[in-house]
């Protein structure tokens, strides 16, 4: 064995290297305060190990990035743990780097002859920040997409070359496949390569000058191995415990909904860049150049000059004050940014929506149909459960309500002037409509011109319903049957069981539609169409297929069609003709109102 | 067992040997050495050119890509816009090319349309001219507002409020009214962050 090692040493000279690595002299013996470098090296090891494994499962393109990260996170063995470690180790590394920097300056380890080493250390800090920035985009989720967009737009404000530079950075005029391929090449290739290079030189220089020992010495000199190594490993253990603690505490790294350029998202960077985000608010107009480029560049420049400034006693003091100010500014700006957001209702609301989308996309991606080839963005875009309420709040809620709210659970901005559409098509909804006590309330026609609020000109329907007040118990029973028959036309998913069970009742109700209800002069058929027969009047809606999917879609497209209100239409817009809503959007809002969306089958049934 | 003397066999073979006397013809040798040096530098440069040049060419490719010029598209009917001047948001659909993929008729952006008392229509791109978030219409303040760095814009003119970080007002778009009451808009994106309104080419 000995001979073999000797042979190897002859050819490689490894013994000398090992000796140098392990038996470096530590003046004054091992100390806890020397652990920073090793703790950071350990972080970098963690990032490389987890990063390469993530790489093996990641696919950079706008149709596969989110999807592959989702697969890692939700489907692959321990994927959430792997991603969680990579995510939180990155953040911890930034914190450790800053602490390391502080320590170096406080201990005056940045002055001659260690200036170059200090610069390499600073270089490493900026590399790690660049890695964070590029890594943030890679999952291609809403959060990363929008935050990075703001960041790359800052590139564009660079004088003269900004615009071209931005194009090169994002790989075109707009975000897309090439933004991802580039960011990924930077994140997994260029930057880690540089990182290794800088670390090697950093450690080499560190060994060359030896440790900047803290005086007074408490012990005799010792070699690095084993006493200092042991302390360093205890530090690594603490780092690992902190990372795992964060992963478990936050339940892994968050993945928001897939990036959708057409879906508004409250863009915020991750916490370590929040200070910059807040900082930018203070610069008006083209002053953004100052906030985004000149001042940061000046600060970085000053950081690099610190070894020279620190040569004088006052200079060192200046450096310390400068660093503490930076740190204070960082904490202060970060705090302000979060405090503002916490008070900003719009922002909180938008975040809540984003959280719902993120939850929903998991359900959809998990559905038997799975994620289509075109990517997961289309899943949310064609999901009535999430899109319906958004469209409703945006386009319908200026007149209609949904359970008294705007569809997204907010108060209505304007007084309700058209029916509340929650449960539309159901027996309950319709029974309320033909209730003399309810028809003229805001929930139904109260806000429309079908009710004359001065008591004069009621529409015939409202008058008819008012007349139902004196209906005999027999008549009441018959009315309920008609309600059931008309409501059955809607074929609501939620009412299917009821409709099937009551088929006889529904048939009777349908007959009563023709024949009229006991005690009333007019039958429904006298005005409304039914059973394929068209309405006798063009201003009264045909009730064949009432509130079925097709009926609602056609109605929303053009309520002025003779099949619906004709010229008697109130202010309901002709959405289809106007182009305010696309065919698809109408379908989404209709499906949502009708309660038709994908629901996972509950597998936990006993 | 025979003892193999490892160190004998592995004496570094390339160790510097003194230059034999007869080679040391100073002037000629010096000139030759100089030429070799020049040659090496040139060769080094030449062999590195092809891979680097090809790489840089591909890297710079995005500069060649233009954002396709969008034509006027029909967005809505004049009647759909509230007469009280409350703006309404519309999504713009067009074909989109993303590197190797073509996405037909997808959402490429959004605009606010606002009807004026004189019957004209104003159109604004929703992208905030500060750094590219999306603005929203604020009912409470009757203005446009960007939740990112709090820029606010006048409802009538689109100009930024005095204490807004944005360097210019909202980007207005060309509008045409055609065929009696159809609203057509030429959709474009503009470079954020600068005071001039400059279309992204
Ligand atoms: S992006 Fe709108 S204010 Fe900054």
What does this structure look like?
The complex is a heterodimer of chains A (606) and B (201). Chain A has 606 residues and is mostly helical. Chain A has a domain of 235 residues: Cytochrome Bc1 Complex, Chain C. Chain A is 59% helix and 1% strand. Chain A has 24 helices and 2 strands. Chain A has a two-stranded antiparallel sheet with strand order 1-2. In chain A, helix 3 packs across helix 10, helix 6 packs antiparallel against helix 12 and helix 12 packs antiparallel against helix 13. Chain A is elongated and about 110 Å long. The relative contact order of chain A is 0.08. Chain B has 201 residues and is α+β, with helices and mostly antiparallel strands. Chain B has 2 domains: 41 residues; 115 residues, Rieske Iron-sulfur Protein (3-layer Sandwich). Chain B is 19% helix and 29% strand. Chain B contains 2 helices and 9 strands, in the order ααβββββββββ. In chain B, the strands form 3 sheets. Chain B has a 3-stranded antiparallel beta sheet with strand order 1-9-8, with no helix packed on it. Chain B has a 3-stranded antiparallel beta sheet with strand order 2-3-4, with no helix packed on it. The longest helix of chain B is centred in the N-terminal third of the chain and has 34 residues. The complex binds FE2/S2 (inorganic) cluster (FES). The site of FE2/S2 (inorganic) cluster has 11 residues of chain B, from loops. FE2/S2 (inorganic) cluster binds next to loops of chain B.
